[in-house]
Amino acid sequence: MKRNLTIFLFVLISGGCQPDEEPKNKTTIDYIRQTGRLWGVTEVALNENGSITIVDAKSSGVGLNLMMRDSNNKVVDSVTLSPGQSCSLSDGRHVFITYELKVIKNSRIIIAVTDKFDARSFGDGIKRTKAVVTISSYKKEENPNKPII
To answer: What burial letters (b/e) apply to 93-128, b meaning 16+ CB within 10 Å?
Structure first.
């Protein structure tokens, strides 16, 4: 019963964070690996100085109900990261995602992702997953699943 309640509440709370089409993955990191996009981020741009700019999914997309915070914990619409710097996304209660830029190699962006879900208020525990992922820059209009012709 406790597990069913946890699952129900998770689905209910995260309903606003779901994409129009149900993803075929189990975790935030699975989503990133499957789509090549960061959860809660509509755009990732490569900058000439070796940094990246990440734009928060404020009005549409996966994770649109999460707030983006810079390294000083200030709520922002976008953030520019150099290697070693990080930003976070959170609903302030249950979902906590951190993106740390590791390096840019051959126009590929290598990011350490920490995904934490706090389900204690649902009678469960804290689940933390860490992984390093590699993505390309992308814009909001682009479809990462569209075949390149």
So the answer is: ebbbbbbbbeebeeeebebebbbbbbbeebebeeee
